[in-house]
Amino acid sequence: MKKWTGLLISLLILILIAYYIMGFMVERTLNKNINAIHKTSVASIYLDQYQRGWFSSRANLVLEMHVPAQQVKDESGMTKNNPPVDLNIKFPLMVDHGPFIFTDSGLRFGLGYVTTKPQTRYGALISYCNNTIFKYSLPSILTKGKTGPQDYQFEWLGLTAELKISPDIEQVKGYWKAYGFNGDAANVSFKLGKVLNEFKFYYTEGLWIGQTHLSVPYFTLTAENAKVVEMDAFDLSLGSDISNKLLNYNADINLKKLSINNNTYGPGSFKLSIKNLDPSAMADINKLQWNMLENNQHPELNMLALLADLPKLLSKGSELDLSEMYLTVPDGTITGRLNIVLPQSDISDAAQIMQKAHGEGQFKAPAATVKALITASLESNSSTYQAQSNGQTQPTTTRDPVPESSTTSDPVNGTVNPEAQADAIIKNYINKGLLKVEGNYYIVDIKIENQQLFINGKLFSPEMLN
Questions:
Q1: 325: closest CA among 272, 380, 283, 263?
Q2: Less crowded by CB within 10 Å, the N or C end of the chain?
């Protein structure tokens, strides 16, 4: 009996000591994480009045903000000085020590648990691996009502999110998941499926590197029992990495189907990568951008400093690679590819580096789709121009926004016919070699070499667009 009593007393002593030691560890982790947050002359955050106890501690999380004095002009055009603004916001914190943490939401295991004071359901758990874990959730909500004779209903299916941060904020990963959102009102209804976003980043060489992925399984919008918009399986992936001391970015977009007003688009895919950038130059550019946000008194000088880093950024043999692009449209399939490479160079002039670029590519689209896009652009430009003309105080003669060589008027009402204009523009581009006809498709072949741009085998000049 004495043996078991001794073991029990020893175990209790070890647990008591563990609580006190973990109090030190939690304080150190919190200070490391908060000190790792980037501080600026505009905003800073720190821990204050940390009072460590045996089983729990108390502290204040302080957010300080400083808005410098600014010169502004009033309605009369007079310049006046706005005084600086200083804010100091304190959030009282309660820190419960591990290894066993009793909270209002249940038993937790870790080094410590940080929450606001008074304690709320949402807080940060510091795990045994010294990671800080935030978990958040929103419940599902169903709302029903009636406005006059119209009934409406909205259903939010809930949300969960988790964020895990390593010591010194060197790695960040997590996810958020929205379980769906449905609604029905005034003969209009919509349904949004489960949306998931996952991400993982790590900090190295002054850059945040990693991957993020967003997926939307479906979305529908119905009006008067007819589907106006229907989307299936949209995926977006963005990523970056450093390989062989070179920085790379990539983007990948996929779509299974998108239907708008009975016109179906998809499947489609878009894969773009930017390779072989100088990571140290990109880190310098990021620092300059932070400085521009903090101090915008000399934007011209900041922009010049930003441009000065571009040659170094592109000096490692940078490459732009559109490896895959296709989208099925009602009239066929739009396809494209493009590859542009810059040679390795120590030249400090970005313009000279661009002159040494070489590459090739091809874009192909149905003729009917090209005409529809040009027609829509002409109609939009014409509407904008007429709206601006009608808003003038003095009457002016409405002029067509495109060159006279491609202007075609309707003989009945004298207005410009956008479809006829589009035909004229396309014919002009075909005659000049900017468009190549292949069956029911238009093709644009691109080649860059010896500081020259060739379109469909012909040397390009800006005059060809007129």
A1: 272
A2: N
